[in-house]
User: What shape does this take?
Amino acid sequence: MWHIAPAGDQALLVRLGTAIAPELLGQVLALDRALQDSRPSGLLSTVAAYASLLCRFDPGVTDTARLEASIRALEGHLDASIPSGAVVDIPTRYDGPDLADVALTKHLKPADVVNLHASREYLVYCVGFAPGFAYCGSLPDGLSVPRLASPRTRVPAGSVGIAGRQTGIYAVESPGGWNLIGRTTLRLFDTAADPPARFKAGDRLRFVPVT
Amino acid sequence: MIEVINGGRWTTIQDRGRPGLERFGIPAGGAADWFAAAAANRLAGNHEGAALLECTTAGPTLRFNADSVVAITGGKPAGTVDWQASSVARDSILTIGAITPGLRAYVAVRGGVDVPLVLGSRAFCQRGAFGGGFGRPLAEGDRLVVGDLQVSEPLAGPWPSSHRPPLGGPWEVRVIAGPHTDAFDGVALERLTAVACRITPAIDRMGVRLETPGLRLHSQEILTTPLTAGAIQVTPSGGLILMLADHPTTGGYPVIATVIAADLPALAQARPGDTVRFREVDAAEATRAWRRLTSWLQLGR
Assistant: This one.
């Protein structure tokens, strides 16, 4: 059963589950598509992340009860599938300032960290936190490390980081607490591009080591 | 043309922001005190989408090279006539002094500040360092072009004080429970609304950190979810982070309650050391408060 709760007086948060799983993200994206198609009156915009979907509405047109009813009507009627779009290559130079520490923590050589990180395809579970930042999963078990004890105040755009079972790419310079293992020259956020962010939830990518 | 002689403490160009792009990690942004900004544009006779200056703690010094009309609202800057349209003569200098009470003052110039639209808005986005003409707060030597977004005569007379939100603490702020009520025990929100929270100096356009003296809230971890302005996150150490206009679009801390949209202007004016009491309300009361505030903006129409 979906968990639907008000997020203030002008949005609803729909939670479809509590796990990081491709199937759940697939359902979230299917709900998102269904709402774009059915366009309940007053729905302004949606944001998908992992297992939840935020639905903002115009309080002059609808209210939480009516919008919740429109969303509930879709429960059990979604045409969901596991996201399976083309895999985008991310050329990555593995020279991040935390690569050696990650290797030490995991009793690996730095080259093994690189090989493990680049060994699989990742799913973008969410674009958030900062413009264009892509949260991707899931990392191999052997690479799971905690966030930095104290976050950096400035992480350069293009930095590739890992934290917990996730890996991510900083699209703009921002503060950040992830372990930085590499960077890419690929431009992931551009205000002049349409869409401005290179990735969206449901996209797939792979890190390709370059020197 | 307006020449910036001194940028002030942290002055940015804002408008109604760019809602709808959150899925790209872009916050809606726009004026932190949306009501004061809208009132300034009304006073100046501007279109509601016109860009203006958001001044923080102490505003800029500006030289006008043409006769202009300005309207200053929000927090009260020293040495200014606020909440009414006033004329500024060519070659004169306008100094927006230290702001108190309140934290943020808005300066609308008749016609609006004309900087390029970025993703549909002229607003400076702190997280992405874009927009607002310069991709940064105003600095000495910046030149601002005045636009042509005037749509009516400036309003005559002062904005009635009965039609403005309160400007000083102690603040009472209304919240709706959740959305992560299930990450807390059943009495957590009741305990939160029973204490006076304190605003810390950690304030920017993204959010405000608050302390809860005598109260330590415990929560369960949640999966990263989308955030809204007004969301009150509880960190693992029990501190509160309240989301403002440029908030991160997603977050990993549970949200115990969310400030109603009608009370966000008050929070944008809260100063370090101020106390805040949260009061839980239902959706009906939140909607009534929203309608009341937006109806005040219809003044003179």
Summary: The mean pLDDT of chain A is 95. Chain A touches chain B through 50 residues (CB under 8 Å).
